[in-house]
Automatic annotation (TrEMBL):
Annotated organism of origin: Crassaminicella thermophila
UniProt protein name: Cobyrinate a,c-diamide synthase
Positions of the catalytic residues: C331 (nucleophile)
Lineage: Bacteria, Bacillati, Bacillota, Clostridia, Eubacteriales
Main enzyme class: ligase
Pathway listed: Cofactor biosynthesis; adenosylcobalamin biosynthesis; cob(II)yrinate a,c-diamide from sirohydrochlorin (anaerobic route): step 10/10
Swiss-Prot/TrEMBL catalytic activity: cob(II)yrinate + 2 L-glutamine + 2 ATP + 2 H2O = cob(II)yrinate a,c diamide + 2 L-glutamate + 2 ADP + 2 phosphate + 2 H(+)
Domain comment quoted from the record: Comprises of two domains. The C-terminal domain contains the binding site for glutamine and catalyzes the hydrolysis of this substrate to glutamate and ammonia. The N-terminal domain is anticipated to bind ATP and cobyrinate and catalyzes the ultimate synthesis of the diamide product. The ammonia produced via the glutaminase domain is probably translocated to the adjacent domain via a molecular tunnel, where it reacts with an activated intermediate.
One biological process term in Gene Ontology: cobalamin biosynthetic process
Sequence similarity: Belongs to the CobB/CbiA family.
Pfam families named in the record: CbiA (PF01656), GATase_3 (PF07685)
Listed SUPFAM superfamilies: Class I glutamine amidotransferase-like, P-loop containing nucleoside triphosphate hydrolases
Length: 467
C-alpha cells in the first residue's frame, strides 16, 4: 500500500522544527489534504499543536519506549485513509538515548517507517559551511534517506541562493525552500518548553501567518513528490482483542490536564473501555457510573488556583477514590492528588489530598529523560510485579514521607549500567500516583491490568447495590 510520508528533522534543537512543521501542515490543509501528524519522542506539547492545525490527533513514535514493529504498526494504522503523513523529529536528527543514534532518535524512526527525511538547517551566519554540515549528516548514516533541505533564518533570496548552490553542488541533495528570520512567528515558551496550544490566544492567526510564509518560500509540490515516492508498505492491523464491555473510565481533560498519548486512549477503547471526559476545573461532579479514573499530566501548578477553587470536584474525586475506584494519576495528575501544590511564587493551593505528601515547584528540572520502571507491588495498573519503559520530565518535587506506600523502583540506565535508582509511585486505596509518563504500547499489560481492575470494581459495586 502507498503511504505518502516524510520526516521533518533538524540539525539540532531550536532550529525551527515545530514552526516549520505546523506551517507545512497548515499549508497542506489549505490545499484540502487530509494530513496525519506524528511526533518522534515522548513530548506532549508539539503533538497538541499538530492536532490543532490538522484536526487529526497527532501520535508519538518513540523507538526507545516502543518496539520497532509496534511503531510501524501504529504509524500505518493511523496513516490509513490520510493523504499524507508528516513526522516532526526530536532534537537533532541523530540525537537518541544517550549516544545511541539507533535508539530513540529521529533517524531511527525514519528507518523503521522507511520514510524520506527533510533536514532543517539554521542558515544564520553561514554560506558554504552549510554544505559541510549537510554532508556530515548525509555521511554519518547513509541508511537515513535525506531527500531535501529546508533552510531557516535566512535573510533573503540572495542568502538562500548562496546556500542552495553550495549544498546542492556538494551534497547532491535538493533544497526545497527556506523561511526568513521573523521573531513575530516564534511560539511562546515556559519552563517545560512551548506553551500548550490550549493556552495560547491568537494561535489560529499566527498559524495562518506561518502557513503564508511557507507557501511563499517552500516548494510544497516538491515535498508532495518526495512523500509520494516513499516505499509501499504492506499493512498488518495491530492485534488488540477486546477484553471487557460496559467499563466506563473517567479521563480528566481540560487546560490543566491534557498530557495523554493518543494511542494510550485508543488502546483502552480497543480493549473495550468507554472513555468519558471531565474537567477538574469546570465540572462540579464526576460523570455517572464510572469504574476507573485516569488523570494525566499537564500544568496543575499554572491553574492551581482554579483547581483549588473547585472544592466540589476535589471532594467527589476523593470520595470516589476512598470508595475504591481504580485510579491512575500521572505526573500533573499525581500532583493534583497530593495535599497541596506550592508554586514558584511560594503560593500554596489545596488539592485533593489522597496522598500524604505535597508537591512543590522548583526552578530546575528534578527528573528528565528515559527511565525503567519496576512495578514492585500490585496496584491500579498492575496485578503483579511488572516492568515498563517510561519518561520523566518535571520541575516539581514531593516531600518524602516514610509512611507512604511506594510501588515503583525507578532505574536510570546508561550504556547498560544503572547510574541512579529511586523510589516513586505512591499507592493509597486503589489509586496510584507517579511522575513517570507511560506509553501503554511499551507494555500493553499495563492497560489490560488497569481495565481488569476497573471491571473488578464494577462487579463489586454491582454486588453491593444488589444487597
Amino acid at each position: 500500500m502507498k503511504f505518502p510520508r516524510f520526516v521533518l528533522a533538524g540539525t539540532q534543537s531550536g532550529v525551527g522544527k515545530t514552526t516549520i512543521s505546523i506551517g507545512i501542515m497548515a499549508a497542506f490543509k489549505k490545499r484540502g489534504l487530509n494530513v496525519q501528524p506524528f511526533k518522534v519522542g515522548p513530548d506532549y506539547i508539539d503533538p497538541a499543536f499538530h492536532s490543532f492545525v490538522t484536526k487529526n490527533k497527532s501520535r508519538n513514535l518513540d523507538s526507545w519506549m516502543i518496539k520497532p514493529n509496534i511503531i510501524m504498526s501504529l504509524f500505518l494504522k493511523n496513516s490509513l485513509c490520510k493523504d499524507i503523513s508528516i513526522v516532526e523529529g526530536v532534537m537533532g536528527l541523530y540525537d537518541g538515548y544517550g549516544t545511541k543514534k539507533d535508539e530513540g532518535s529521529t533517524a531511527h524512526v525514519s528507518k523503521i517507517i522507511q520514510a524520506p527525511v527533510i533536514l532543517i538547517v539554521d542558515g544564520k551566519g553561514m554560506s558554504s559551511s552549510a554544505a559541510a554540515q549537510v554532508l556530515g549528516y548525509k555521511l554519518y548514516d547513509e541508511c537515513v534517506d535525506i531527500k531535501g533541505i529546508i533552510i531557516n533564518n535566512i535573510s533573503g533570496d540572495s542568502h538562500y541562493n548562496l546556500l542552495k548552490e553550495s549544498i546542492e553542488r556538494d551534497t547532491k541533495i535538493k533544497c526545497v525552500g527556506y523561511l526568513r528570520s521573523n521573531a513575530h512567528i516564534a511560539l511562546e515558551s515556559r519552563h517545560l518548553g512551548l506553551i500548550p496550544s490550549v493556552e495560547l490566544k491568537g494561535l489560529e492567526k499566527k498559524i495562518e501567518e506561518i502557513a503564508e510564509m511557507v507557501e511563499e518560500t517552500i516548494d510544497l509540490d516538491a515535498l508532495i513528490m518526495i512523500a509520494n515516492e516513499a516505499k509501499s508498505i504492506e499493512y498488518q492491523p495491530p492485534k488488540v482483542k477486546e477484553i471487557v464491555k460496559n467499563i466506563n473510565i473517567g479521563v480528566a481533560l481540560d487546560k490543566s490536564f491534557n498530557f495523554y498519548y493518543e494511542d494510550n486512549l485508543d488502546l483502552l477503547k480497543d480493549l473495550g473501555a468507554n472513555l468519558i471526559y471531565f474537567s477538574p476545573i469546570e465540572d462540579e461532579d464526576l460523570p455517572e457510573n464510572l469504574h476507573g479514573l485516569y488523570i494525566g499530566g499537564g500544568f496543575p501548578e499554572v491553574f492551581a488556583k482554579e483547581l483549588e477553587k473547585n472544592i466540589k470536584m476535589r471532594e467527589k474525586i476523593k470520595e470516589a477514590i476512598k470508595n475504591g475506584i481504580p485510579t491512575y494519576a500521572e505526573c500533573g495528575g499525581f500532583m493534583y492528588l497530593s495535599k497541596a501544590i506550592t508554586t514558584l511564587e511560594d503560593e500554596k493551593y489545596e488539592m485533593v489530598g489522597i496522598f500524604d505528601t505535597e508537591a512543590k515547584m522548583t526552578k530546575r528540572l528534578q527528573r528528565f529523560g528515559y527511565v525503567h520502571v519496576n512495578i514492585e507491588k500490585p496496584c491500579a495498573i498492575a496485578k503483579e510485579k511488572n516492568h515498563v519503559k517510561a519518561h520523566e520530565f518535571h520541575r516539581s518535587m514531593i516531600d518524602e514521607n516514610t509512611q507512604n506506600e511506594y510501588v515503583y523502583v525507578v532505574d536510570k540506565i546508561r550504556n547498560g549500567e544503572k547510574i541512579k535508582t529511586w523510589k516513586c509511585g505512591l499507592k493509597k486505596y486503589n489509586a496510584l500516583g507517579a511522575y513517570a509518563h507511560i506509553h501503554f504500547y511499551s507494555n500493553t499489560g499495563i492497560a489490560k491490568d488497569f481495565i481488569e481492575n476497573c471491571m473488578l470494581y464494577r462487579d463489586r459495586s454491582s454486588e453491593k447495590n444488589e444487597k
